[in-house]
């Protein structure tokens, strides 16, 4: 198959993506558009269908129905040239524990027509000092960075990161985020990240799709999602008799204006808490299985 070169800005395009395991529906017709150079997070709780989605996009799983194009080709028919344009962060070092870090990178580089220079990769992933270290002696965080180095050695246009920072300490996580941002901002790599870590999605992603029970319940930039949330602002204040009060409202300025109007002077303890991304997420995760309720741009189509 000749790889179709995708000239449009859509790197991932899915319509009505459906997956059924036996008689269990796991993905219920997902629509997705991921654009060139963006960091896109698929966020959802355990069992939401994130890995299933990603494995279908990577060409490792056959979908039950729907239309999917990744870099212009159907992943089920992706050939070696197409695979070479995709970076997968696999835990391949497990089979190469005795290799030295630089040696392993140099070895994987031989699989690609235009690989990155292993020394440059070591610097990019912060592993220069570990170049001569045996792979199975690396810490968990450094191993994961090596996974990323192996994932990008072939200069992929699209990088899949499936829950990449599970088990990282805060510093390793921050360094990893800087690395992913650098790949996207400086090198134009498109990144599809799956995570159930809200802070990670908020910190890294240009856009987030919230996948819950096999449906995309909301999609947008982190601030759009927080703003357009069905979750409402919370106004807190202390009443005249000294009791703390709180009220949820879609129109907090009106409530504050009313409180001022009714008060003799300043309102003690006044606080307005805007809905956060976490409010939206928890709302999506906990709401009843009702498509219409609180669906915020439920198809991940547009920026
Ligand atoms: N091979 C399979 N056969 C049957 N059911 C499967 C298979 N793989 C996954 N599932 C089911 O599909 C659903 C979605 O799983 P998936 O691994 O895609 O979710 P996830 O969002 O990646 O979850 P997690 O965050 O826990 O990794 C789950 O209910 C899971 O049990």
TrEMBL record:
Alphabetized PROSITE patterns for the sequence: ABC_TRANSPORTER_2
SUPFAM superfamilies membership: P-loop containing nucleoside triphosphate hydrolases
Signal sequence extent: none
Location(s), subcellular: Cell membrane
GO biological process, one term: response to antibiotic
Membrane topology annotation: Peripheral membrane protein
One cellular component (GO) term of this entry: plasma membrane
UniProtKB keywords: Antibiotic resistance, ATP-binding, Nucleotide-binding, Transport
Gene Ontology MF, one: ATP binding
Domain ABC transporter: start-end pairs: 12-238
Family as reported in the entry's similarity comment: Belongs to the ABC transporter superfamily.
Name of the protein in question: ABC-2 type transport system ATP-binding protein
Organism in which the protein naturally occurs: Streptomyces griseoloalbus
């Amino acid at each position: 198959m000749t790889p179709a070169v995708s000239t449009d800005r859509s790197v991932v395009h899915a319509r009505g993506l459906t997956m059924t395991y036996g008689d269990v529906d796991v993905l219920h017709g997902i629509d997705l558009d991921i654009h060139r150079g963006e960091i896109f997070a698929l966020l959802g709780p355990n069992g939401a269908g994130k890995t299933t989605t990603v494995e279908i996009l990577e060409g490792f799983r056959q979908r039950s129905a729907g239309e999917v194009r990744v870099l212009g080709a159907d992943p089920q028919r992706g050939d070696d040239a197409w695979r070479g344009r995709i970076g997968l962060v696999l835990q391949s070092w497990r089979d190469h524990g005795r290799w030295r870090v630089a040696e392993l990178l140099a070895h994987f580089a031989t699989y690609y027509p235009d690989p990155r220079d292993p020394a440059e990769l070591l610097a990019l992933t912060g592993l220069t000092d570990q170049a001569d270290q045996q792979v199975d002696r690396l810490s968990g965080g450094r191993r994961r960075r090596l996974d990323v180095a192996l994932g990008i050695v072939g200069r992929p246009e699209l990088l899949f990161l499936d829950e990449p920072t599970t088990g990282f300490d805060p510093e390793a996580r921050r360094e990893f985020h800087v690395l992913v941002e650098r790949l996207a901002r400086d090198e134009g790599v498109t990144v599809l990240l799956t995570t159930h870590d809200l802070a990670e999605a908020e910190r890294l992603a240009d856009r987030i799709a919230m996948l819950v029970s096999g449906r995309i319940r909301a999609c947008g930039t982190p601030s759009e999602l927080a703003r357009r949330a069905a979750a409402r602002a919370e106004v807190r204040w202390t009443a005249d008799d000294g009791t703390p009060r709180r009220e949820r409202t879609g129109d907090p300025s009106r409530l504050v204006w009313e409180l001022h109007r009714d008060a003799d002077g300043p309102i003690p303890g006044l606080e307005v808490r805007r809905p956060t991304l976490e409010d939206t997420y928890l709302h999506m995760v906990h709401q009843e299985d009702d498509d219409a309720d609180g669906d915020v741009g439920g198809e991940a189509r547009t920026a």
